[in-house]
Amino acid sequence: MLRSRPKNVSFTNLLKKSSGLKRSFAKKLVPMDGNTATSAIAYKMSDNIFLFPITPATPMSENTDIWNSKGIKNVYDSVPDVILMQSEGGAAGALHGACVSGCLPTTFTASQGLLLMIPNMYRISGEFWPTVFHVSARVVGRNGLSIYGDQSDVMGVRATGFAILCSGTVQECNDFALLSHLSAFKSGGPFLHFFDGFRTSHEISSIENFTDEELKKFIDWKALEKHRKRALNPENPYCLGTVQQTDLGFQGIESYNEKYNAIPGIVENYMKQIGELTGRKYHLFDYVGHPDAEHLIIMMGSGTQPAEELIKKFVKEENRKIGLIKVRLFRPFSKKHLLEAIPDSVKRIAVLDKCKESGSIGEPLYLDVCCGLQEMGVKIIGGRYGVHGKEFTPSMVQAVFDNLKKKTPKNNFTVGINDDVTFTSLEMGEPIDIMPKGTQQCVFWGIGSDGTVGANKNAIKIIVDNTDLYGQGHFAYSAHKSGGVTISHLRFGPKPINASYEITNADYIACHCTPWVNKFDLLKPAKQNSIFLLNSPYNTVEELEKFLTNEKKREIAQKNLKFYNINASKIAVDAGLSGRINMIMQTAFFKLSQVIEEKEAIELLKKAIEKQYKIKGKTVIEKNCNAVDQTIENIVEISYPREKWLNLKDSAVEEIDESLPDYYYDIIKPVSNLQANDIPVSKFPFCGYLPSSTSKYDKRGIALTVPEWNSDKCVQCNLCSFVCPSSAIRPFLLTKSEVENAPNGYQTLRASGVKAKDANEKSLDYKIQVSPYDCTGCNTCVVNCPTKALEMRPLQEVAQKEQEFWDYSINMDANKKKASFKTGNIKGSQFLQPLIEFPGACAGCNETPVVKLITQLFGEQMMIANSTGCSCVWGGTIPSNPWTTNEKGHGPSWGQSLFEDTAEYGLGMAKSTNTRREKLKKLVEKAIKDKQGNEINYEIMETLQLWVNNFNDREKSYEYGEQVKDMILGEKNYKDNKFLKQIMQQKDMLAKKTQWIIGGDGWANDIGFSGVDHVLASGENLNILVLDTEAYSNTGGQASKSTPRSTVAKFTASGKNTKKKDLGSMAMTYGDVYVASISLNANPKQAVKALIEAEAYDGVSLIIAYTPCIAHGIKGGMGNSSEVNKLALESGYTTLFRFNPNNAKINKPVFTLDSKKPKEVLDKFIKKQNRFDSLKFTYPEQAKIKLSQLQKDIVKKYNNYDRMAKSEKLNKKKK
């Protein structure tokens, strides 16, 4: 029987008891996100912090590094050691070592990172050490990588022996971080504290923090002393990690039972103590709901917030008998405490899991509850929600309760999707608004890198710090790098805000990126009479009538929106802020929303600007403050003709284009329009399959300006195409008839340096053309054009004309069909089709031009094993696949496994391909040998022999392989011939493949280095490309072993103390590995030569490409990265070389130094990048020392290479 809940406890008191949201005026509310709330406690309670970056847990690590650099102490009166490791496995191993040595260590991780720690977790729990792993729970990638939050990673470690504690709000992150450390100390065993990634980790909310004195009062100092005495020490020696046999192991495992049995009581006791101090009451299982509830939901994490708020509403307004159990302590799972929390009246229970466990009869929490409540006699069903970070809203909570009411409730259900295959999904009703009265809800649509998200975080801080309002912020991002959609959801109100879902009833909507207004359904959540602010160049109603779609104008009128426009982009340019419109739009928000009185808001904004940009200097501060002043004067209210707009008809309906694949309408279009949540299960391809050439459908149109070609100034060097990160500007060769049929205004030149293949064509014409809606406006092509033949023009002025020209150009025959030209140089390579186009990289990216060039040279038979990182995001994000094909449908095949195993993954690909090709070769050789019985005609036999003779020649095996296929297909009854039939079954193995392993410097130097080293030693014919951004660019710019000395990066806030790892020198020690260091923008000729040599080398090649990144803070933007590349080369910062073992066979130097003696321009190079220059403002004395050491590192490295080159030449002369 269940214990009855005391009848004298009212429902209101129950709510207060569980919610713990009574505001304490003795303590100041502070805005922070879940990661900060957690790391603030972890830092204070730990001796050592072992780190490795992984989204979305990385900010916790970054916070601790910053606090460490400032000398902030923990509660033990010391500054914790913050140690960056090479991998999550390394972090867990080092943490284990710290445990056994008597310290109190912690770490932060998520997803696969957590799974890499599993072996250490078993050992740590097996030895029962007090430590805490803080986990920003995230999807464990299956058929694709996802950075968003569900609880599959935590469920994957539930058997490790760690106690597991779950937070559902930002405040709980702070409280339960403390609770986990205290409980670990007291119990002596390990804890895992987790919260939902992004949903809670990145949500900003108003919380109360703890003081150091309060923290110290909670600590059981005797327990800590006991832990330290237990440590390994030569003065009290004993052994750990022994070898056990069958006669001992079982009993040893069972000896822990008492320890685990004590944990629930320890956690409960500390919950009570925290409650007595703060007024926030917690229990192992917290109940919210009607005292006599009949239907109950059991769940944990952020989803409890909408469930709790909806239950409050329905119990108060309709006296519904429903309730919620919030699971706090998941491991050890206390059946006793769960039974005590559930009212006697409960008849049906729905257990919700935020994960999918394939093949199981139910998910983990559901199975635990079923086991724990098997004697209750109530019906228990299970369901899944929020998987892969899916939204969980009040209407979904309603759907779960509606299902419970049915005569036969659906079990193993899903909520939040449309499962039209196995029909697990629940039907949902209209959105339900449960926000407290007086809550102001605001949605901001921005574009990645425009500063919108940062500005909104700043707005929350300003409002919470200077009013009595509570604040909350949640931020959604697209998978593109910079240039993608960002959506900020901000709420402010006089009461605590518990809403872990996106806004559906907005009082204020701002569109910061002009194209978004017509592309997306951004006004859908707007309330009647709410405010809509648009950033656009159109300040009059006449201009807006032309620009806005009829549907958008009608929606504005139907909702009677207060419509404002501001040309923020122009204000930013005039103020010298380039595309950074964040402060402008933030100023407009404060003026229009009146959440703070305008004059006060402007003063607070300027103070925030001064604080934020202090390290960037007085000029930057003045520019931003000037932009704020200009904003107030330039907000224009649009008095639109409401009656006219109300009666507008729909715009022309888009006709179905039969030439487009089903995948476009099923997946690409809804995803691009941010309607992917509505895609049913039946439309999804199996196992994460992503067809090639889908990025061409994006047409994002995010550039403010695009290049326009002036044929009179062009010298046909093709450098603009060579450096373009997006393949959005290309050279085209035209026949006479193609020129004659071109659209009006289509400029061409007589082509030089090429020869027409058709004898009837005396010459060809030449054209440079941009794809305006695929261009990102980075300006790189203009900066690199030697004759200023390109000029940036406003997109809206030239888009229609340039798109017409692009469509005509791209549909012509390929250049190589019409002309003969050399491909082993800058100009000729660009006449080849790029087999990667329009990747979702940052504007001005330096990685993509390198990869693009490789696809132009070798892409038709290219196989790619790609590491996790930037290159996997811009190279493989559904539905936008930038890898494309030639006219035969051939092109790069691309796969990604994990971050740490890319080299091994690529080696496996190469070995498998070789095995299959060798089998085909044996078959062909057998057919050739059996001349009498094979019944194959002479021409085919002859061509097969040529193919065998050129088996390992990429180009010739491809050529003869194509001939073989054509010849066999010309045989009417080839399927009756056993040899020809089998050859055609394996025809995809005729051409020799070129295997590439691609990844960033963090992968190659840190987490994946052991794999890279193994592949270097393998002797296999494959190529490794390291895109060296000198940081973990994909996770926000954390330091790697490739980061040079003095760099200010995440994890090196006071400048890196050690020099850059020289991966190239290490690889050369093998002697049989081709190694090259290249910089595409600094020395393009050398880069082309190195890539061709590397691919031709019969063995392992390693190419290290210096690729400056947006994380470097290049002044003037990434369009200026070419200058940075050149300064890097001139100063000796980057050293270019080639190490070609083949040269030994022809008595040439194996090592060639392609860099000249460094010039004294390092200071100029440093001043171009905030990653170096900012150190002078934050740590001026350190800057002097470390920058001087950097100069010495550069000179020393160059001298070493110079000696190698001179020694090579000397040795050759002697021979």
UniProtKB/TrEMBL annotation:
Top-rank taxon: Eukaryota
Family annotation (InterPro entries): 4Fe4S_Fe-S-bd, 4Fe4S_Fe_S_CS, PFOR_II, Pyruvate:ferred/Flavod_OxRd, Pyrv-flavodox_OxRtase_EKR, Pyrv/ketoisovalerate_OxRed_cat, Pyrv_Fd/Flavodoxin_OxRdtase_N, Pyrv_flavodox_OxRed
Pfam families listed in its UniProt record: EKR (PF10371), Fer4_8 (PF13183), PFOR_II (PF17147), POR (PF01558), POR_N (PF01855), TPP_enzyme_C (PF02775)
Domain 4Fe-4S ferredoxin-type, first and last residues per copy: 705-734, 766-795
Keyword list, A-Z: 4Fe-4S, Electron transport, Iron, Iron-sulfur, Metal-binding, Oxidoreductase, Pyruvate, Transport
Official protein name in the record: Pyruvate-flavodoxin oxidoreductase-related
Source organism of the structure: Anaeramoeba flamelloides
Lineage, uppermost ranks: Eukaryota, Metamonada, Anaeramoebidae, Anaeramoeba
